[in-house]
Design a protein that fits this description.
With about 240 residues, this protein is an alpha/beta fold. About 40% of the residues lie in helices and about 20% in strands. The strands form two sheets. It has a six-stranded parallel β-sheet with strand order 3-2-1-7-8-9, sandwiched between helices. The protein has a three-stranded antiparallel β-sheet with strand order 5-4-6, with helices on one face. Strand 7, helix 10 (about 195-200) and strand 8 (about 205-210) form a beta-alpha-beta unit. Helix 7 (about 75-85) runs parallel beside helix 11 (about 230-245) and helix 9 runs parallel beside helix 10 (about 195-200). It is elongated, with a radius of gyration of 19 Å. The relative contact order is 0.19. Bound molecules: 2'-O-acetyl adenosine-5-diphosphoribose (OAD) and zinc ion. The site of zinc ion has 8 residues, from loops.
């Protein structure tokens, strides 16, 4: 930590990329690993457009269940610490692969949501956003008022492109960062997993927070094998103490 704090003194453009691991201390399941969602469910049956066309009720049942889980959870100290980090650097950008809104619930603003947001809906055909459908009945899925297409969750499924504006902005921010944190992500899903690599190639200090090694561990300048909800509040209080000294 001491070494990291010394290096952070010269950093002014901080970018953070988060993954499912930052929400695990809130009680939200990650995707990979023993207890991960993809160990229990088959993504090709639940998180693709083909699956939705073949059996939209099952897909909606699964998303309703995930929404119920999210209704009961709260941000953890890691989320709150990342919100505070926003104020500790001249420039700050938070990029997340998470669809759970916990960063926003903790108070973070300007979150780049690469994989959408599970609490929003959109039309499966014309992509018009829909927000006010209430609970979706899997046996009677509402249809789009513009084109009649079925309403689906506004998340990125396997095989789908990310929102071009959001991913372009994420690359731009990563290229310009002088400090890049990769936190709680297995760093295997692209294009998100390319962001730390791009940042490092453009000269950023790369810091990883993850209890397990990932494909970017070797190129990182610092790796902390500490849960983000423990590490980040400590980092924030050290940074604050330095700034007020
Ligand atoms: P993963 O489930 O692949 O990885 C979670 C990572 O968090 C693992 O590397 C864990 O070691 C780490 N981890 C767990 N608890 C942690 C903690 N308390 N502190 C720090 N690290 C912790 O989740 P993602 O990398 O987010 O995509 O997965 C990427 C994408 O794959 C997801 O956005 C989702 C999934 O398929 C879509 O749905 C499009
Ligand atoms: Zn439509």
């Amino acid at each position: 930590m001491e070494d990291l704090l010394k290096r952070l003194k010269s950093c002014s453009r901080c970018v953070i990329l988060t993954g499912a691991g930052v929400s695990s201390e809130s009680g939200v399941a990650t995707f990979r690993g023993k207890e991960g969602l993809w160990g229990k469910f088959r993504p090709e049956e639940l998180a693709t457009m083909d699956a939705f066309m073949a059996n939209s009720s099952i897909v909606w049942e699964w998303y309703n269940w995930r929404r119920e889980v999210l209704n009961k959870v709260e941000p953890n100290p890691g989320h709150y610490a990342m919100c505070e980090m926003e104020k500790l650097f001249d420039h700050f950008c938070l990029i997340t692969q998470n669809v759970d809104s916990l960063h926003q619930a903790a108070g973070s603003t300007n979150v780049l949501e690469l994989h959408g947001n599970i609490l929003r809906n959109k039309c499966a055909d014309c992509f018009t956003p829909f927000l006010d459908e209430g609970d979706i009945d899997p046996d009677s899925i509402p249809s789009c008022s513009k084109c009649g297409g079925k309403i689906r969750p506004d998340v990125v499924w396997f095989g789908e492109m990310l929102d071009e504006k959001i991913i372009n902005k994420a690359f731009e921010e990563s290229e310009r960062a002088d400090l890049f944190f990769s936190i709680g992500t297995s760093a295997v899903v692209h294009p998100a997993a390319s962001l730390p690599i791009v940042a490092k190639r453009h000269g950023a200090l790369l810091v990883e927070i993850n209890m397990e090694p990932t494909p970017i561990t070797e190129m990182a300048d610092f790796c902390f094998k500490i849960p983000s909800g423990e590490f980040l509040p400590e980092l924030v209080s050290s940074l604050k103490a330095e700034q007020s000294a």
